Amino acid sequence: YKHLQVRAIIRTNKPADSQMYTRFNGDTTNNYGYMVFNTNGTSAPSAGGYTPLNVGGWGNVGPNTGNTFSTFIMDILDYASTSKYKTTRILSGWDSNGSAGLIQLGAFPWISTSAISSISLFGANGAIMQGYTHVALYGLKG
Q1: Dihedral angle computed from the Cα positions of residues 14, 16, 17 and 18, in that order, rounded to the nearest 10 degrees
Q2: Tens digit of pLDDT for each residue in 43-87?
Q3: Cβ proximity of 69 and 11 under 8 Å
Q4: Residues 6 or more apart in contact with residue 9 via CB below 8 angstroms
Q5: How far is it, in rounded angstroms, from Cα 107 to Cα 37?
Q6: CB 116 within 8 A of CB 2
Q7: Which pLDDT belongs to residue 63?
Q8: What digits encode the pLDDT tens for the residues 93-123?
Q9: CA distance 128 to 139
């Protein structure tokens, strides 16, 4: 495969908004950046800029209320290349039956020419994935 795609439906143990983070090959150094656009449907989209981070692409995860789940789709482009930095693009969001919600579109570089051999997903601030969470990895042909 030329690219990878991670698709997830996630519910966490946190009562408020949180994020799911990504790390490649266990890299915990400041080799990640981000550019995101967020909107909750009532305010103008907000954007982030490049900042060295020790976590990769993330998707916002909704509050742990009722059956609130988040969706998360991440494309990892040219994951096996050893001649360029990796780029991920993410679409994520959640809705609480119209009372709250968020949509996020982002691009997240991993500043490394190493081929990606492992992907870790984990919650921010101790968020733990709960029952009925589903994560799938797909290979995409070029």
Answers
A1: -30
A2: 777 766 666 677 777 776 666 666 678 888 999 999 999 999 999
A3: yes
A4: 69, 70, 71, 72, 132, 133, 134
A5: 9
A6: no
A7: 65
A8: 887 666 677 788 888 899 999 999 999 988 8
A9: 26
Query: What per-residue confidence (pLDDT) applies to 67?
Result: 65
Integer CA distances (angstroms), 71 to 11, 26, 62, 94, 116, in order: 9, 24, 9, 6, 23
Angle at 15 between CA 9 and CA 20, to 5 degrees: 40
CA gap 15, 83 in Å, rounded: 42
DSSP structure class, residue 69: -
CB 3 within 8 A of CB 76: yes
- Least Cα distance to 29 among 126, 122, 123, 111 occurs for 111
Half-sphere exposure of 65 (CA within 13 A, CB side): 14
Angle at 73 between CA 69 and CA 76, to 5 degrees: 150
Query: How far is residue 25's CA from residue 57's CA, in Å, rounded to a whole number?
Result: 14
The identity of residue 94, as a single letter, is W
| Per-residue exposure over 29-44, b if at least 16 CB sit within 10 Å of its own CB, e if not | eebbbbebebeeeeee
Bridge partners of 103, per DSSP, are 39, 93
